[in-house]
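> call design_seq(struct)
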């Protein structure tokens, strides 16, 4: 199962999505018997790569947020210690 095949949400895989959808239109019955399987495998690989890129970006963003929160906690602790 794959996510919805919308081109604006998957810019990295847009070309493969178009080929896959065209294959399904060209082979309405054959798609059930493996005519579009190669494209499906390429599409799955592309989605995995896309997800890895998003995961890495999210990790970097969360790392920056954690560092920022930690510095705020230190500043707050120092401010409280002065009183």
């Amino acid at each position: 199962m794959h996510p919805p095949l919308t081109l604006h949400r998957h810019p990295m895989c847009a070309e493969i999505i178009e080929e896959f959808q065209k294959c399904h239109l060209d082979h309405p019955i054959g798609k059930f018997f493996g005519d579009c399987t190669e494209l499906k495998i390429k599409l799955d690989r592309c989605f995995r790569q896309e997800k890895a890129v998003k995961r890495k970006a999210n990790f970097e963003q969360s790392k920056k947020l954690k560092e920022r929160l930690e510095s705020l906690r230190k500043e707050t602790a120092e401010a409280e210690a002065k009183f």
